[in-house]
């Protein structure tokens, strides 16, 4: 990214002093830029597409609009600065926030006892996201909320499995269980749809930034709650049900009122199925030859473990003990 492109997008002269590709980002690239603007030095993060993307991922201009809405709502997010295009690829620039988003490092920091205060903060941040509700004229690309978010989720996952063309009987079985146990719909809210350990920037026990807004949509707030608490995002601390970082009770306490705990096992199953579908898609991206990434290849190998989780979760859901 040259100085001229950034200067045009920023609307002021910008000089890049250093740049470094940040770790992570199987779908997007994130670059840390040290720049000089108006005689002052600033740290920015530039976010743009990788060589291959997922069809369900929002575009960078759409993600920029979501960041602006979240920032205005008091959600702890990096301040969105500007957006532009380089070689035909859209990008967005946001102010850098300090901390770490590395899930393994955060797990080591909290230890096996967890950090109740941290997951309370996570709950509060998620509640602020869910305070954004339709209609929102600044977010037209999200479309109309589904009449029944649970059944819409099942249909979307079934379509993605059909499109992939690879038989996944365990995932289909899990989706059939979701159809059987679907609860009546609730008023829709903005869902982050990837609110989890690994997408939260944390410094000194505080959430400094909620990252990766590319999967947002309208739906049941319990979908985000279940995603955060699903076993697949607890990493080394399976006993810490709130993202492997702390107790579920503290997370829900931070979130506040309006949680129907009986819905959580349903949406934790949904989270496991969705992550298995994404993991299979990422493995297929590697096998296609479009993007020869070791991260994508290894992600494809976790599908069998997720299928085992799905078998257990469906058994618990059917027995009413999940």
UniProtKB/TrEMBL annotation:
Residues 21-260 form the Aminoglycoside phosphotransferase domain. Pfam families: APH (PF01636). Coiled coil: none annotated. This is Phosphotransferase family protein. InterPro entries: ACAD10_11_N, AGP_Transferase, Aminoglycoside_PTrfase, Kinase-like_dom_sf.
């Amino acid at each position: 990214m040259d100085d001229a492109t950034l200067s045009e997008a920023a609307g002021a002269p910008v000089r890049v002093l250093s740049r470094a590709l940040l770790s992570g980002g199987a779908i997007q690239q994130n670059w840390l830029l040290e720049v000089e603007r108006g005689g002052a030095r600033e740290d920015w993060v530039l976010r743009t597409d990788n060589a291959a993307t997922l069809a369900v991922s929002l575009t960078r201009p759409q993600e920029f609009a979501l960041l602006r809405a979240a920032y205005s709502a008091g959600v702890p997010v990096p301040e969105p600065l500007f957006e532009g295009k380089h070689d035909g690829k859209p990008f967005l620039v946001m102010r850098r926030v300090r901390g770490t988003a590395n899930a393994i490092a955060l797990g080591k920091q909290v230890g096996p006892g967890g950090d109740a205060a941290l997951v309370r903060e996570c709950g509060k941040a998620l509640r602020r996201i869910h305070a954004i509700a339709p209609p929102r004229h600044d977010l037209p690309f999200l479309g109309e909320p589904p009449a029944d978010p649970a059944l819409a989720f099942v249909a979307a996952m079934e379509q993605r499995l059909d499109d992939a063309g690879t038989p996944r009987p365990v995932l289909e079985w899990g989706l059939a269980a979701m159809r059987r146990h679907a609860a009546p719909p609730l008023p829709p809210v903005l869902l982050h749809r990837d609110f989890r350990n690994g997408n939260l920037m944390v410094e000194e026990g505080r959430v400094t930034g909620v990252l990766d807004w590319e999967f947002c949509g309208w739906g049941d707030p319990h979908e985000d709650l279940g995603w955060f608490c699903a076993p697949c995002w607890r990493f080394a601390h399976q006993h810490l049900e709130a993202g492997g970082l702390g107790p579920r009770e503290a997370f829900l306490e931070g979130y506040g009122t309006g949680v129907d705990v009986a819905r959580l096992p349903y949406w934790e199953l949904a989270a496991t199925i969705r992550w298995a579908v994404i993991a299979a898609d990422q493995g297929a991206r590697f096998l296609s030859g479009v993007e020869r990434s070791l991260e994508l290849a290894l992600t494809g190998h976790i599908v069998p473990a997720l299928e085992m989780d799905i078998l257990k979760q469906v058994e618990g859901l059917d027995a009413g003990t999940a």
